[in-house]
Specification:
The protein is 3% helix and 56% strand. It has 165 residues and is mainly beta. The chain has one domain: lipopolysaccharide transport protein A fold, CATH 2.60.450.10. The protein has a six-stranded antiparallel barrel. Strand 11 and strand 12 form a beta hairpin. It is globular. The chain starts with a strand and ends in a 5-residue tail after the last strand.
């Protein structure tokens, strides 16, 4: 079956979905079993029980690669060594909203574009509001746009929880 694409425009997944402004001003703290820093190419690789924290942003993965240009982080790539047992996780608190949580075999956060790419067994949710699942999910954090796609074996799933009166 051909890939199924669902484009949900203007859904206020985290309306407004901007990360806390104070997060950007905080230092990035990384813990891992192994680290390799290549300043010449602007690449830092961390392996083994990696945790990344910057304010409300938290990433947990088996491996994390952080790319930077001119000493500014441009991309964070988190992945799982065993996605059948454990997925990489991401969570962050957007301004004026509740915690956004994501899981996938590979998570790519493109900092300058505020784009979260979830690849392989992907899920994205705000626990009391809505959730999405598919093989690949692209979440434009700045615009609040979700694009979910299946791999042809499963369908994309969206769940919306009605507000309580």
């Amino acid at each position: 079956m051909k890939t199924l694409i669902i484009l949900l425009l203007c859904l206020p997944l985290a309306a407004p979905a901007f990360a806390l402004e104070s997060d950007r001003e905080k230092p990035i703290e990384i813990q891992a079993d192994f680290a390799e820093i290549d300043d010449t190419n602007g690449v830092a690789t961390y392996r083994g029980n990696v945790t990344v924290a910057q304010g409300t942003l938290h990433i947990i993965a088996d491996e994390v690669e952080i790319r930077s240009k001119e000493k500014a982080v441009t991309r964070i790539i988190a992945s799982s060594d065993a996605p059948d047992k454990r997925l990489a996780t991401y969570q962050q608190l957007p301004d004026g909203s509740e915690m956004v949580t994501a899981k996938a075999a590979r998570i790519v956060y493109v900092v300058e574009k505020e784009l979260l790419q979830l690849i392989g067994q992907a899920s994205l949710s705000q626990p009391s509001d809505r959730a999405f699942a598919g093989d690949t999910i692209n979440y434009d954090v700045a615009r609040g746009v979700v694009n979910a796609e299946s791999d042809g074996t499963k369908r994309v799933t969206s769940t919306f929880v009605p507000k309580k009166k």
